[in-house]
Amino acid sequence: MVCRQAGIVPVVSDRKPGGAAGWDPDSAGAIGWAKGFAVGAHRFEVPDATALDTIRSKPALAIWGEADRTLAAEHFLPLFSETFPMAPIHRLAGVGHYSFEDAPQEIAELIAAFLKAH
Question: pTM of the entire structure?
Fold first, then answer.
């Protein structure tokens, strides 16, 4: 498949419409995952208390482009903050979904500072 040459692995599901898993053709695969974020419908798996303690003990960083029209910050960042309440969040004005292309130096500096601190 051409996608594999570009490093893209297609998502394949054997679930059928109306099946026990509640398969929804509008939310299948990576496109559905992104669409769920975009419309505020995506939810992360809820970890048990032990896993949540382990997750929260890890350093985390969020860097978000405020001009991202694909994954809306108002849907994703509250989920991130809930999981990592002490983690810094950097919102970059004028930066879109391809944030590394829009602000490579600023993002590199934020990541370097984060890694140095942790």
Answer: 0.62
